[in-house]
Amino acid sequence: xxxxxxxxxxxxxxxxxxxxxxxxxxxFSARTPSEMQGVAVWIAMVFLSIxxxxxxxxxxxxxxxxxxxxxxxxxFGGLAIGSAWRTRREQILISAAGPALQIGAGLLVWFATSTxxxxxxxxxxxxxxxxxxxxxxxxxxxxxxxxxxxxxISEAAFGPAKERLALTISLVCAVALALYxxxxxxxxxxxxxxxxxxxxxxxxxNRAEQLPWMNVH
Length: 217
What we know:
This protein is an alpha+beta fold. The protein has two domains: 1-142, no CATH class; 143-217, no CATH class. Helices cover 65% and strands 9% of the residues. The protein has helices at 15-24, 33-63, 88-113, 121-140, 149-158, 163-184, 188-209, and strands at 2-6, 9-13, 70-74, 77-81. A four-stranded mixed beta sheet has the order 1-2-3-4. Strand 1 (2-6) and strand 2 form a beta hairpin. Helix 2 (33-63) packs across helix 3, helix 2 (33-63) crosses helix 4 and helix 3 (88-113) runs antiparallel to helix 5. The protein is globular. The termini are far apart. Mean pLDDT is 92; it is low at 213-217.
């Protein structure tokens, strides 16, 4: 893993993060130098946007007293890890902070560049990629699908007594998105991703139904 520290947070980046970013950026089909350059720019924008997202989580963790928060960027995104116990309110705010900062960064870049005439096609591509990743991915992450941030917010809002309800909502949303991405959009990678989340939620829901104390409301 690549290691460095930013704003006092240890940051580790798994090699699968770079690989998946490259695949999403069209690395398989890139043939010309300009296409390969475009893939490299896409990877850089994915890295920058997701790092901003995870810093949002980590900064709010620190605000609530976390002193050992670290950030890991891995195959399907990132994770801000802490060791302190958190209340439901704190968890909601921490979960919301990542996409909020990411979307905010995207909107700021859009506002700053919307009136500029940018001649460089590569720079236009970099800005467009950052806006797409920051705004669209950030908003998508707020859907109530566990373990995405929206799912974490849903879990904390419903609480342990209504875990099955949060899981059911998550499962339905994940299945719907997997079908939409696969059938309507033809995006196999996205369909597989949401299908995997749906399967994980289905497994968790089955385990929750087997625990007697989960039936207490």
